[in-house]
UniProtKB/TrEMBL annotation:
Positions of the Fibronectin type III-like domain: 710-780
GO molecular function: hydrolase activity
Protein name in UniProt: Glycoside hydrolase family 3 C-terminal domain-containing protein
InterPro entries recorded: Actin-crosslinking, BXL, CBM6, Cellulose-bd_IV, Fn3-like, Galactose-bd-like_sf, GH, Glyco_hydro_3_C
Hydrolase listed as a keyword: yes
Sorted UniProt keywords: Hydrolase, Signal
Coiled coil location: none
Signal peptide from the UniProt entry: none
CDD domains for this protein: beta-trefoil_FSCN_BglX-like (cd23343), CBM6_xylanase-like (cd04084)
Record lineage: Bacteria, Bacillati, Actinomycetota, Actinomycetes, Streptosporangiales
Entry's family note: Belongs to the glycosyl hydrolase 3 family.
Domain Cellulose binding type IV: 796-921
């Protein structure tokens, strides 16, 4: 007798019907079991276990050797969507290969890409993102997601997850800080980065971020349902970040109990709880308690389950076969993927400066110098390198290569005697007759690492004991870095970066961590060999010196740790200066996941890339020797100093003049910058508005004597507006390869609707009637041609009636807060005299208004016309004391308020919360 398969296993049935059928067969408890990262199996129905979350940011990570591609910011610097798509496709191949070998260990829901715009380069996770421009971020994320998602129309190859929603660019206190997000910044800057991949249907999941946004945890954001799911053509899975659900009651204290918090999360749109690793019992227990207490209904659970099952169905889990079943181990680090890794690394290099030294010619002997010259770094989200072609190795294949690591070799001596390292990698001790030798690595920001010459291993901490058994800084909790604090008589104390403890010496002479600074052992550090001097001597003997400098991805800012400076590590900076003076033919090669600054003036040549993966050295050699034109372009501004940046927690790029869109200074290198080995001419820019679309064309000619690659960039600027407009905004680009003397026409087609900005007066996008400037060139500031065009749109009318406090035009000394726990934004005063401004408020015929306000200590709000200090007072509201979400409707008469005016709402004291003012109440 042939057993008939249930409808949910019929691939010919409509997807919704299949999901309905399976949900209808599940008990409530079985449904709840699907709301954890480790979804429980339903054995009676033949439904297996399922796990969300395989890391795949720039290759498969954490599961063993796999192809390692350049970091995400490096991939974006290629400005090549097809290449980024192919990297995503190769990554999905390797995810599937691992999955077929170990389904439980390598799930098909991949947690990539990261689409947080790179607002501030000090963010510890800068290397994980693509660009400070939200549109370019969206374009690159769409390309990578498309590769991960696969080409089969009905079946997902893997299920890409966008990270991290929303306004997440700080590691400092990331679980408790709230990102202040005015409506224009939300709609014009933060949300657009997510929109493209979701609307295209190539990203099928989203992960909320750890932080709060306008006072509300991102995991509870109403925008998940109101915006993200409105964009998605299919069900969108929302997975929590690791251990974030528990923060709702713990670190964030937003709810009193976990059943309350988890119920709120599910209703807000969270479908999968990443909590307690594979131990789901506690989480599921809280969800069951929420059901029992009436905080959740079974329909709420079913909605979340539908999103979770939709992904599994679309991955082909319940089908007899998928187009990807035959992918196996042969694809992992296969020759094709190695070639792609090399291509991606080569195309990501950005030539920042060049006086003609590059490409290298007539070179027979090169010095490779620097602590990154013969090393490749893995970051937290990279895979395990299957092999490593360093700068030294890559260049050694081209010519005679000498190497100098350029680090100081030192001894450490305490009062009790020299410090020595156990030859077996064990504890460090003081009191030996002969001092041990250590190589000192400066990673910047005051973080140093020490490597024992005896073992070739780095100092680390095992428990509380100093040992020397590690290959370098590594792991989630990096235990191999130290700070140096000055002590009397030229001595120093070592302070362990990870724990904050000091290095002390016990009675047995073993170095151990101690809590008290007074117990720290005072050490004399003597340099027995200067890395700077050694580098300069070698540089003077060779044709060209290549100094490789940069960051360690696990030391100079990373997840949980931001940077305080953009400066190159002082010791590395000193090496660059010394080498440049010893040999004018010096190339500085920067390898970093973020922009850097340095003190040496004009260098002959400067080349940058992100950490480039396993083929880095081959790619570097190809670019240095001119086998390939440097194709990369910067995707974020390189500032001259961190002093040019606003506060790390200031997310209002408009008010703070941040990113290339609003920055008014002269950067070290602008957004979009990158030189070629040839030259290009721009001519004949023509543009016209046709059927609601700006259509423009420009002719690019290679005017040099060798083939080259140009990234043609189009920008616009609205020249008149009701609001502050970006100075420039990227609207399109095209990468062209031209032979000497070859010309090509590059076109832009831009719908006029994309020129819209968010109108706070009506809470929608609007295109104003205004003149615009179209600009085209090589970067955001190297703009070769421009043309003016007029757009016929709207004129924003005066506003009236109910004005929501969050929808103001300008502000001072206020914080955005959650109006209620569930929805809405309000503002709270941070100081006496704080204010918000509403422009062009029509008070014609108005005689009274009503404010919705409250405050723990009460207070006073005054409406002034024209000026927050000296403008005439039109109304005053005494604010009673209330609890956090308590608002009073406070009426007030309008005195002499007829006509259209700019109104300042002034908070006479700190701590008053305002939801809105209704100017139509007395009309």
């Amino acid at each position: 007798m042939i057993m008939q398969q249930p409808p949910f296993r019929d691939p010919a049935a409509p997807l919704r019907d299949r999901i309905d059928d399976l949900i209808g067969r599940l008990t409530l408890d079985e449904k709840v079991g699907l709301l954890h990262q480790y979804q429980a199996p339903v054995e009676r129905l033949g439904v297996g276990a399922f796990r969300t979350g395989t890391e795949a940011l720039h290759g498969l990570a954490w599961l063993g050797p796999a192809t390692v591609f350049p970091q995400a910011v490096g991939l974006a610097s290629t400005w090549d969507c097809d290449l980024v798509r192919r990297v995503g496709e190769a990554t999905s191949d390797e995810v599937l290969a691992f999955h077929h070998k170990d389904p439980a260990g390598a799930g098909l829901n991949v947690w990539a890409p990261v689409v947080n715009p790179l607002r501030d380069p000090r963010w510890g996770r800068n290397e994980e993102g693509y660009s400070e421009d939200p549109w370019l971020t969206s374009v690159m994320a769409t390309a990578y997601s498309r590769g991960l998602r696969g080409s089969a129309p009905e079946i997902l190859k893997t299920a890409p997850t966008l990270k991290h929603f929303l306004a997440y660019n700080n590691e400092t206190e990331r679980c408790t800080t709230s990102s202040n997000l005015p409506p224009r910044v939300l709609h014009e800057y933060e949300l657009p980065a997510f929109r493209g991949p979701i609307e295209e249907g190539v990203a099928v999941a989203v992960m909320p971020s750890y932080n709060l946004v306008n006072g509300r945890p991102a995991h509870l954001s109403p925008l998940i349902g109101q915006v993200l799911r409105a964009w998605a053509p299919d069900d969108l899975l929302v997975v929590s970040d690791a251990y974030a659900p528990g923060n709702l009651t713990a670190l964030q204290g937003y709810h009193d109990t976990l059943p309350e918090a988890y119920a709120h999360a599910v209703k807000a749109g969270l479908d999968s709880f990443t909590q307690d690793d594979d131990r789901s019992e506690a989480t599921l227990g809280h969800l069951r308690a929420a059901l029992a207490q009436g905080l959740l209904a079974e329909e709420d659970v079913e909605t979340a389950v539908r999103h979770a099952l939709s992904i599994r169905f679309r991955l082909g889990e319940f089908d007899p076969a998928t187009p990807y079943d035959d992918i196996n181990d042969n694809v992992v680090n296969c020759p094709e993927h190695q070639a792609l890794a090399r291509e991606a690394a080569r195309r990501s290099f950005v030539l920042l400066d060049n006086d003609g030294l590059l490409p290298l010619r007539d070179v027979s002997r090169i010095a490779v110098i620097g602590q990154l010259g013969d090393a490749l770094m893995e970051d937290w989200y990279s895979g395990t390198l299957p092999y490593a072609v360093t700068a030294r190795a890559g260049l050694a294949e081209r010519c005679v290569t000498e190497f100098c690591e350029a680090v100081d070799r030192v001894t450490l001596t305490a009062d009790a005697g020299p410090v020595t390292a156990d030859p077996a990698g064990g504890p460090l001790t003081v009191g030996a007759a002969e001092p041990g030798l250590f190589d000192l690595f400066d990673w910047g920001g005051g973080a140093y690492a020490l490597r024992s010459l005896t073992t070739g291993r780095f100092l680390s901490v095992d428990g509380l004991t100093l040992v020397n058994d590690q290959p370098g800084p590594n792991g989630w909790e990096v235990r191999q870095t130290f700070r140096m604090e000055e002590r009397p008589r030229g001595t120093l104390a070592l302070r362990h970066v990870s724990t904050g403890c000091y290095v002390g010496a016990g009675d047995d002479g073993v170095l151990r961590l101690v809590d008290d600074a007074d117990q720290a052992v005072w050490l004399a550090m003597d340099v027995v060999r200067s890395g700077t001097d050694e580098a300069a001597r070698l540089a003077a003997e060779v044709d060209v010196a290549v100094v490789v400098v940069g960051d360690h991805p696990l030391v100079n800012g990373r997840e949980t740790e931001d940077r305080m400076t953009l400066a190159l590590a002082p010791a590395q900076d000193a090496v660059v200066r010394a080498v440049r003076r010893a040999n004018p033919r010096t190339v500085m090669v920067i390898t970093s996941g973020y922009p850097l600054t340095w003190t040496e003036g004009e260098l002959p040549a400067v080349l940058w890339s992100a950490h480039g993966g396993q083929e880095y050295g081959h790619a570097l050699a190809e670019v240095l020797f001119g086998d390939a034109d440097p194709e990369g372009r910067l995707t974020q501004t390189w500032y001259r100093s961190e002093q040019e940046l606003p506060d790390l927690l200031d997310y209002d790029i408009i008010a703070s003049d941040a990113t290339y869109q609003y920055f008014r200074g002269v950067p070290l290198h602008p957004f979009g910058h990158g030189l070629s080995y040839t030259t290009f001419d721009y001519a004949d820019l023509r543009g016209a508005l046709i059927d609601g679309e700006l259509q423009a064309r420009v002719t690019i000619t290679n005017t040099g004597d060798r083939p080259g690659v140009e990234v043609v960039q189009f920008y616009t600027h609205q020249q008149r507006s009701r609001v502050k407009q970006p100075l420039r905004r990227l609207r399109g680009f095209e990468k062209v390869r031209l032979e000497p003397g070859e010309s090509r026409t590059v076109a832009l087609r831009l719908p006029v609707a994309e020129l819209a900005f968010w109108d706070v007066t009506r809470s929608r996008f609007v295109v104003e009637s205004a003149p615009h400037q179209l600009m085209v060139g090589r970067s955001a500031t190297d703009l070769r041609l421009s043309a003016r065009f007029e757009v016929e749109g709207e004129t924003v009318p005066p506003q009236s009636g109910l004005l929501r406090a969050a929808d103001h035009d300008e502000y001072d000394a206020i914080t955005f807060v959650d109006e209620t726990r569930v929805d809405g934004d309000a503002v709270r005063s941070d100081a006496e005299g704080a204010w918000i401004l509403f422009r062009q408020v029509d008070l014609t015929g108005g005689v009274a208004c009503v404010a919705e306000a409250g405050g723990a200590e009460g207070g006073m709000i005054t409406i002034r016309r024209g000026d927050p200090l000296y403008g005439p007072a039109l109304a005053t509201f005494p604010v009673p004391r209330t609890d956090r979400y308590g608002y009073h409707s406070i009426p007030a008469s309008l005195d002499g308020a007829d006509g259209v005016h700019d109104l300042y709402v002034v908070f006479e004291n700190e701590g008053v919360t305002l939801a809105g003012i209704d100017f139509g109440a007395g009309a």
